[in-house]
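Preliminary data (for renewal application), FE2/S2 (inorganic) cluster complex.
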Amino acid sequence: MADIHQVTLTLANKSFECSESDSILKGGLRHGLALRYECSNGTCGACKAKLVTGNIEQVKHHDFSLSDDELASKVFLMCCQAPSSDLELEVDLIGDVRTIPLQEIQIKVKDIRFVSDDMAIVSVRTPRSKTLQFMAGQDVELCYKGILARYPIASCPCYGMELEFHIRKLASDDFSQAIFSKSIKSKSKIDLTGPKGVFVLKETSNKPMVFIAWDSGFAPIRSLIEHAFSLEMSNPVYFYWAYPVTESMPYLDNHAKSWQVVMDEYHYQSIACEFDRSSKNDCHKVAQQIYDSLDHKVVNQSELYISAPAEVLIYLGELLLENGLDEAQLIASPI
Ligand code: FES
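Predicted structure:
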């Protein structure tokens, strides 16, 4: 079995364990660190770091040429080197989600799983030479033969080459219609532009974290919660998943339940909501049903992340703020 070494990022005061058989970039991303990278294969130079102490070993060839000055000051590419001892590195982490460049990548559909008559889990792959850099909770724009849509990414940034989207079939969403009519299928090519949005985790907060999703709003919440695992955050987590009462349970109920195993303090509650998609007034009703199900003592002392349709967000936000929530605690993203 390959040895494991401790990698310390001196500027960010963070450390993680990395196997001798993994690149330092892969090890860092797996631990939820916001490292800069682009290609993951030694072509772009975006993943440069400076070796302060320790030894590294090249595990992948790179075409990108480091300058003589960089080599002399022990700059290397994290996607091509693995640790062969404990390391100290100098590298800047992404501090502000807005500094991640907008990327345009052609992705390929790997698999579409229809979990019900109108809900699809779509897995895609980026090309080997281009990984999507994003932060958990962000969205992307997808375009297939001129049909545009914007969806949150459901997967964690630690697997930037494999992305997942949860797509509900809606009459108003032509992209979803193309999925369910099977115009978009395995191997279809889709243009992706992103990442977009600032629905990201407050990684330095010690407060409990309350996550609320309406239906496919689960996608960015899943990305955030799994990112919190990668970071080994020990904050208590409360997850409320509201779903249409016409379904027997939320579409990935077992997945949400399974987090119990990996978190010491995890509370999950699904909320079956009466909801008529054709009636806008029902957004009030959904917001009220979610509000009535919350443990307000917990909510008022937590960071609160909500992913729901804009109208539900507005009504639910109003209810929460009127009842003691501070605006700074609320992080919301419309789906
Ligand atoms: S060289 Fe592109 S990410 Fe490492």
